[in-house]
Structure formats: structure tokens, C-alpha cells
Amino acid sequence: MTQTLSDFLVPEAVDLGVDAEDAGDVIRRIGGKLLSAGYVRDTFIEAVLERENTIPTGLPLSGKHNAAIPHTDVEHVIRPGIGMATLLRPVVFKNMVSPEETVEVQLVFVLALEQPKSQIEMLQEVAQVLQRPDIVAALMEARDLEQVHAALQSSVAEKS
Amino acid sequence: MGQPKRILVACGTAIATSTVVARAIEEALSDRGIQVITRQCKATEVPSLVQGMDLVVTTTPVPANLGVPVIQTLAFLTGIGKEAVIEQIIKALVPSDHPV
User: Biggest alpha carbon distance in chain A?
Assistant: First the structure.
């Protein structure tokens, strides 16, 4: 089984232990890195921010840390990839399924998706990671890209 | 069993979460011997696409009173309450289908 999430993770857009002001700050930061690395168009950041305002992506998880998966329409993406941030302190995202509720988020995956069906395995892996509090915890503790990949390996290795 | 059941799977953009949810529903139900056909859409498209569907499963709010049962859940993304939601889906699709 290919390690699709690890393959799509854009090294230049992985930021660990970030001290962010708010959700917008995280999105601008990681979105900016995806832009510099050539994965998204210059309309991407604003589109993600706008989307997050009306169709939020905050996800309460079963462990200590919650996540968010901001993204936007495919027209703002050049090549598919994922940016990631782990935050020193939680920032507020609105809850995807109940937008009137807030979620304190510390793990953010910014998804630059080009075509949903061709990235289904990558998306399934993102969901699998979110369903494993031990992997989320390992990502939160990662201090470098190698440790991030090591944490993600366990989501792949245990698929049978 | 008759025709496969039709499930409309909605999310905000119709590109990310509905993809994962649709696949997870298909697998979970097929494991239980229930055939379904899923269709993905954006939440805003639900009212215009709901005709002929047996169920709507969505990760984001949709209008009420669609005439079709709606299950609003993150369970297929976060894993929280997944088994319970699968049972809910089965009940909504095959309310009287219990093995004798």
C-alpha cells in the first residue's frame, strides 16, 4: 500500500509548534507556503478563508487534540498536496457539522485538492489519522518532518 | 432484496469529506450485505438532488423538511459514534429488514 498521505505532504508547508493568533493566521501561513511551493494559485488563501467562514472544517476528535481540514474548490489548486500545522496553543475553528459551535484546534491539514476521486486514498488516510488519537498525539509531538512521517507510517502499516 | 438504496452524500465543497464518507458508507453497508448507490454533492445542491433518494448523509447542515431522512454526522471522518451511525443508516434504509 503506498503511503499516499506522506507522499502528498508538502515539506515546505509543514510547520510544527506554531504559535498562531487564530484560524485565519494558520490558513494564511500554510496557504502561503503552498503558494510559494507552487501548489496553489494566488486566489487559494482567500478562497480557503471564505470557505472556512461559511462551511467550516473544525473536527472534534476523540483524543486530547482536535483538528481542522481547511480547503476550497479545485480551481484554486495547481497540483495536489497537503500542508500541515501543529499549534502550540489551540485556535478556534467552527464545527463542521454544527457551525454554531466552536472547536479548539491544534492540528490543521490544509488540503490542496485537484480532483476528489483521484485523491480518495489520500483523503481516506487523512480520515484514518483523525480517527487515531495515538497518531494525532504523535504528530503533535513531532519536532521535525522525519517524526511526522514516522507518525504517519503507523496509519499505513496497520492496514491489512 | 430489491433495488440498491440510494444515498445522497453531502458536504461543503463536494470534493473532500463527501468522498471519504461515500466510500465509508458503501463499504460498511456492503459488509452488512446491503447494496447502496451513493451520489456526492454540495450541501447547497441537496434540495435539487434529493428527489428519488432514500437518505441524505451530510457532514454539514442542510435544509430541513426535505421529505427524505437526513443524518448529519462527522462519524465517518472522526470515527466517533461510527457504529451507531451505521445502525442509524441501516434503520433508515431498511426499517423492517430483520433476519427472521
Answer: 40
Q: What total number of domains does chain A contain?
A: 1
> Is the pLDDT confidence value at A120 over 90?
no
Q: What is the pLDDT of residues A83-119, one digit of tens each?
A: 999 999 999 999 999 999 999 999 999 999 988 666 7
Cβ–Cβ contact B71 with A under 8 A: no
Q: Please check whether residue B61 touches A, CB under 8 A.
A: yes
| Residue A81: CATH number of its domain | 3.40.930.10
Ranges of each domain in chain B? 5-93
**Mode of pairing for the β-strands spanning A81-94 and A102-112:** antiparallel
Q: In this structure, what C-alpha cell is assigned to residue A70?
A: 481547511
Q: Which among B26, B44, B20 has a CA at the least distance from the CA of A116?
A: B20
Nearest residue of chain A to residue B60 (CA atoms): A97
Say what the pTM is.
0.92
Domain of A126, in residue numbers: 4-157
Cell 504517519 found at: A152
Residue A111 and residue A8: Cα distance in Å, rounded? 10
> Sorting pLDDT into bands at 50, 70 and 90, what band is A77?
very high
**Fold for domain B5-93?**
Rossmann fold (3.40.50)
A15, three cell numbers: 510547520
Residue with cell 502550540: A88
B-chain residues within 8 Å CB-CB of A105?
A: none
Mutate to test the interface with A, among B9, B13, B57 (most CBs of A within 10 A): B13
Is the ipTM reported for this complex over the cut 0.95?
A: no
pLDDT at A4: 73
